Sequence to fold (202 residues):
Amino acid sequence: MSTSVPTLNVVVASTRPGRSGEQIGRWFTGVARAQDAFDVRVIDLAELRLPFLDEPLPAVEGEPYEHEHTRFWSELTASADAFVFVMPEYNQGYTAPLKNALDFLYSEWVDKPVAFVSYGMKSGGLRAVQAIKPVVSALKMMPIEESVTIHLRQTMKPDGEWVPTAALHEAAIATLDELLRVSRVFAALRAHHGMAALDAVG
Fold:
């Protein structure tokens, strides 16, 4: 975790060839980097290529992990202060790769805020966001209310190019501002818990 500029992991949740999420994730990352409030990293689940959960022990038990891919994913996640999930809606739900990535870990997610950039044809991904909120809450993450909701029918050209609007840009800025505010609070909370744990050991 950074002690000055918080680290933001932008997680592109779709692994489907031809996905819109790659364009949307690239756009949101550009907005976040231009704002210059976070150290922004892009985590593309299509590139990460996590297998289906294959750790022999429950994630809540934490390290040591048996597999190198789990250790790599743990390091990426533990070192982040906040998350944005760029996520489509499939059949009124979120993607299996995203659920799998969440289930690999536990303590690495705890006391960290998460925001959502969702997209879909009719609902803009809102049903997927509502479906995932109980999951991230069970991981003791804090889902923030500000979000970016993208209706592809209004923003996608016939050739497949996605075109962000001014309203979406404003929503992205508002989401990042709130994520920054909350991430600072939770960083202080995690630091306090860490000090308390050290005192208990001492």
Observations:
- Residues 14 and 21 are 6 Å apart (CA to CA).
- The longest helix spans residues 166-201.
- Strands lie at 7-12, 39-44, 82-88, 113-120, 142-143, 148-151.
